[in-house]
Amino acid sequence: MGRQTYNRVIVAALIILSGAAIISGACDSTFVALPSAILGAHVEFLTEDSATAYCKRKGFSKAGSVRTSTLNILGLSMSAARISPTELVTPRSTKVIVAVECLKPGQTACTADSNGNIGSGNKGKRNFGTNNVGNDNIATAVAATQATTAVNQTTAAVTKAITAIAQSLPSFTHAIPSPPKTVPSFTHAIPSPPKTVPSFTHAIPSTP
């Protein structure tokens, strides 16, 4: 329960969104905040096990470190999208990707520094991403805001496009002809019998 697998028609509508990418100079990784996808007519965040599939679709080799949360903790009313197999996951306990480290071919994942920070320019402890100040931050506040704005703008654009397509579809209503007001008569005239019956008297020849 809680999963809805999409057929080929709907799978074609799975569009991967960029999120907000932050390139870390020190460890040379790209961190993406709030990666998401359009599934059908809705924008959904991605399930935890979609990290590498997401990075590959964005042109990277694989995923490195990942930070997650649940739909319930984030207070989101939306569902989550799994990339492979493509399906919609609805339970509120579903873990979604809040930020992911995407790696190019040959790159290795960044390692945590002495304060538990992964990324570069972080000031504090257990931060993930770039230029965080404080403790336990993921990506950057600016990047998260940009990603949320991008998702909202994409949702509006998709809704507008679907509405336009629906309005442009031709109408297939067929007019049904009304039945005739009068039913034609198929009465055939039967000819009257002749008043006189013809005589068929034959002359009998005389004997010689």
Describe what this molecule looks like in 3D:
The structure is a single chain. A 6-stranded mixed sheet has the order 1-9-8-6-5-2. The chain is an alpha+beta fold. Helix content is 21%, strand content 28%. Residues 5-13, 20-25 and 141-145 have low confidence and may be disordered.
Q: Stretches where pLDDT falls below 50 for ≥5 residues? A: 5-13, 20-25, 141-145
Order of helices and strands: EHEEEEEHEHEEEEEEEH
- Percentage of residues in helical conformation: 10-25%
Largest sheet: 6 strands, mixed
Strand portion, in percent?
A: 25-35%
Average pLDDT works out at: 75
Backbone structural class: alpha+beta
- Report how far apart the termini are: 118 Å
Number of helices: 4
How much is the radius of gyration in Å? 39 Å
- For the biggest β-sheet, the strand order reads 1-9-8-6-5-2
User: How would you sum up the global shape?
Assistant: rod-shaped
